[in-house]
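Deliverable D5.2: sample structural annotation.
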Amino acid sequence: MADEGKTRWGIVALCVAAGLVAAAHVGKAPPALPALRAELGLDLVLAGWIVSIFGITGMTLGIVAGSVADRVGHRRLLLVGLGALAVGSAVGGLTSSGTILLTSRFFEGLGLLSVGVSAPAMIAAAAPGRDRRLALGIWGSFMPAGMAAMMLISPVFLSTVGWRGLWQAAAILSVAWIVVMRRGTPPPPKRTDAEAPPPLLHNVVSTISRPGPWLMSICFALYTIQWVSLMVWLPTFLIEQRGTGIGAAAAMTALVVVVNVVGNVGAGWMLRHNAPRWLLLVVAGTTMGLAGLGIFSSGVPDGIRYLLCLVFSGVGGMLPTSLLSGVPVFAPSPRQYATGNGFLTQGANAGQVIGPPAVAAMVATTGLWESASWLMAGTAGAIVVVALAIGAVESRLPAAEPAR
């Protein structure tokens, strides 16, 4: 985990690709829901759980998974995670039971979580110094990029081999990437007794006893409350309120997801050139709040609304990268990197679980989509406050720590 030496960009690329493979398992479900409901007789509640089970898994087990990764090895848990994704997808593609399908999605969620906490720790080890910020910025794009790619590819599979074929294709992709990762990444050197990994509970306690990880996890939750809510409800808003066709609404939403990648990578580049983390967080939060007010405002023309969606997602994409690159800064030591990633993941998934139902409740209560804008504005304001606190905590760290 030393910072000296050249960046091993090949390992970074393989880890980012592993994230894309894992995110594809998230993106395959929404386009397949109509076919799943029709064939398996799923009601709306169970269908909703098929999509949201990943968020519940990450929200409850994130820091535990991260601590396990720090204990057993990041590469090992990443490979196990890809295996869980493959097994879960393969079993799900063979079942005729909604309950078994939901169980298989739980195992896929464990796989996604395992990859999500392990890969950035491997990237941090492979990318020293300022390159680490750019590398983690690229990593930050794995979820929107992987989801969007699968959402765009899924209709081809659904129209030819059906949802079962889509599930099996995702399983095969995961198995293939296990082979690639095993061959492309060296196993870690054997640890000496002096280098024995800390106990699981020690990893957790040492991480949550610091203010930095708490602030970053809260900030990520506030972000996903906004971003995931817009991604979930934008197709419905476009179809029901603006009269957009189903195909066009899906394509427009996919583009909004894709532009998030621009913010992810852009923030990594700016951080590499010493942009203050807190400032990027403030800019991202403020922009999302202002854009959110306009997106659901009845007085804004549709073309401007959609442009605001793109700005919301694109500029907002700076926030995940800024937080992910902060894990090595705020972690107690390099031996708790994955634990820190897990705690950050819990915050991200908590927002994912909270946001869409909160928007639905507000709209259902008032009968107006405009009410959703106040949730956007409120969480954006909270992001600014938390970002300033993150900056204050980081400024008190030893001078060498933020650059490591």
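Annotation notes: Confidence is low (pLDDT under 50) at residues 400-404. The two ends are 10 Å apart (CA to CA).
The annotation will be released with the project's public dataset once the embargo ends.
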